[in-house]
Amino acid sequence: MTDNTRRALLRNGLVLSAGALLGTPAIRLAHAADAQTLTLYNGQHAKTTAALVEAFTKATGIKVDIRKGSSSQLANQIIEEGERSPADAFYSEESPPVAALAEKGLLAPLDADTLKQVMPGYTAKDGTWTGVSARCRVVVFNRDMVQESELPASVMDMATKAWDGRVGFVPTSGAFQEQIIAIKLLKGRDAALGWLKGLKQYGRIYNGNKAAMKAVERGEIATALVNNYYWYALADEVGADKMKAGVHYNGGKDPGGLITVSAAGILRTSKKQQAAQKLLAFMVSEAGQKAIVGSVAEYPLRPGVQSPYSLKPFNELEPPAVTPADLGDAADALALRREAGLA
Q1: Half-sphere exposure of 116 (CA within 13 A, CB side)
Q2: Is the pTM of this model over 0.85?
Q3: With 0-12 CB in 10 A as exposed, 13-18 as middle and 19+ as buried, what is 165?
Q4: Which of 276, 317, 334 is nearest to 137 (CA)?
Q5: Is 19 part of a structural domain of the chain?
Q6: Pairing, β 259-267 against β 129-142
Q7: What residues contact residue 237 under an 8 Å CB cut-off, 6+ apart?
Q8: How many domains does the chain divide into?
Q9: Are residues 139 and 129 part of one domain?
Q10: Are 225 and 85 in the same domain?
């Protein structure tokens, strides 16, 4: 072997050794970076999730890839993807899509410490998902068209001839599906079906809650059944002091005052369980709750956190005795809608 050959081999050997020494940490760093990026299937409002994720990444250094869609569509996608789903966590605007995944065994148990941060009654009975923030069903009304004192005590009475042409509703809304199930649980299936038939006959259908809210504001219709935060969202646009629409809260444990939640869970198939648990824990932490309720007029579910919006106090709402866990996956809501001719 010549001196030149020997020197060439030594040079190559040194390069290879250096590459091996440098390559291993590089690979580890790449894997570490990958492990610190979570994939979140998000059905919640984009603004709310963006505020939450920004705060989470700032606090933990863990990045989140947000994939947006409707809650029900994303839940169905996860079911279809099964073991192949790239999702690490699912954040839903409503609880039924998350409950549907839990019923199919697709969610991992949440840390007990995470569940303890949430008010009792707003987590899954098996601990696989948690409510993150809450809102309530309300009646928004145009003050020039109807006085609040004229509104019936029960939302059931708004699906009658007395309110012919004066009630707007969104049958495709997730919260509306939950309200259907609440009525079924409280008053029976026949009552829920009768209520839907009454709304079909006497009410007016809108394609979205924002559209229904704006219709009330401009005097197109006297009232609409929506979530409370739609009034606040419009008030942010036009100014609360200029609003012609008011908000009516159905008390007395009426289904018109149902409390529903946005909910989240971790996919059992996620390869990043530890990081995903950190995300869910952050959602219900003080910092996470402040980020969420600072972006939308929803109620925090962690005791001690205050909304910056002038919401009616949570302990004064007098909702019906139906929890998100009671609502389950709300599967019968679609069947009832179809029977009522509202599918």
Answers
A1: 3
A2: yes
A3: exposed
A4: 317
A5: no
A6: antiparallel
A7: none
A8: 2
A9: no
A10: no
Residues 282 and 207 in one domain: no
User: Number of C-alpha atoms within 13 angstroms, CB side, residue 30?
Assistant: 6
Q: Do the Cβ atoms of 99 and 260 come closer than 8 Å?
A: no
161, 176: one domain: yes
- Range list of β-strands (E), the chain: 37-42, 63-68, 89-92, 107-108, 129-142, 167-169, 204-205, 223-227, 245-248, 259-267, 299-300
Q: Which domain holds residue 160?
A: 135-258+331-340
Cβ atoms 320, 254 nearer than 8 A: yes
| C-alpha Rg value of the chain to the nearest Å | 25
- What's the rounded Cα separation, in Å, for the pair 323 and 321? 7
Determine the residue type at 185. Answer: L
Phi/psi at 108 (5° precision): -90, 150
Shared domain for 293 and 196, answered yes or no, is no
Which ranges of 36-81 does DSSP label H, i.e. alpha helix? 46-60, 71-81
Q: Are residues 228 and 270 in the same domain?
A: no
Q: What is the pLDDT along the chain (343 residues), one digit of tens a residue?
A: 444 444 443 344 333 333 333 344 433 433 444 458 999 999 999 999 999 999 999 999 999 999 999 999 999 999 999 999 999 999 999 999 999 999 999 999 999 999 999 999 999 999 999 999 999 999 999 999 999 999 999 999 999 999 999 999 999 999 999 999 999 999 999 999 999 999 999 999 999 999 999 999 999 999 999 999 999 999 999 999 999 999 999 999 999 999 999 999 999 999 999 999 999 999 999 999 999 999 999 999 999 999 999 999 999 999 999 999 999 999 999 999 999 999 7
